[in-house]
Design brief:
Order of helices and strands: HHHHEHEHEHEHHH
Number of helices: 10
CATH topology of the largest domain: Dna Topoisomerase Vi A Subunit, Chain: A, domain 2
Strand order of the largest sheet: 2-1-3-4
Structural class: alpha/beta
Length: 304
Amino acid sequence: MKRRDDVLSIFNGLRKYWPLTERQSFYQLLSSRAVSQGHWHQFGDPARPRVDVYKTLGRLLKWMRIDEVLPWEAIIDETRVLTQKVGYANAEAFIWCELNAMLSGYSRCLASDQANHIEVWIEKQALLRLVEPVADKYCRRVLCCKGYNSISFQADFYHRMEDAKAADLQPVVLYFGDWDPSGVNMLYSAMQTLGDELGLTGVDYYRCGINPEHFAGLEADPVPLKDTDSRAKKFIKQHGRTCYELDALHPEALKNLVETHIRRFTDIEKVACNYQTQGEERDYLNDLKSQITDFVEELIGGWS
């Protein structure tokens, strides 16, 4: 019961970020230090080893939802995708669907007139939905670069950066990943491959987090360093044995960190000007849509 209460406290505290993945909830549970209490040890005995928290959490989340202690919508399974149903009841239903969607969702590129072409790279796919809305505010792309990148990925990036440079923009990559032997090496490995093998130059790369300067604000314990990682020896020599995963950051802290670094390379006054123009253009489009809808309604009335 105490373990369940700890988990429920985590989810209630992060309600505005629902749905969470199980892995996110795991790292937030570790960050809460609740797992240091005796009831997270075998048989509730603090003298015994701690239980396997991840497996225990998985079982708790299963039964908490079945028993209706935790809503089903609190957790998302990103490995299962349901496609959308196609087809309409009739032609008139299709027409109204198209009219409702017509000229909707317009947004002006708020990144126009900027000097930098910015891409946000994030190592964890589960965190993509937290970071994407932040980047969208400034019309910037987010790329999930889980693991070491393929040559196809690198070629696509090469062409995007060459196009940016041809438009007289300075390419900037803001990288967010784990602080462990592979997580630290990934960005520099990609930089080396892009430069040595594809000849890409003139790109500014910044490792923005999670970095040692962020550790002081964390409540989570470090994760074990994998000595089997081929990069472990070099990492230990340069940085020591302290490792943290990006998920250890509170969701709001991660969002703020991403926004801070985007703004660092953004002319905010130009963003504000484009935002004002966007409002004027949306008013124009709404008026145009109203006129078109009235016209089509007359046609449908005569047709039916």
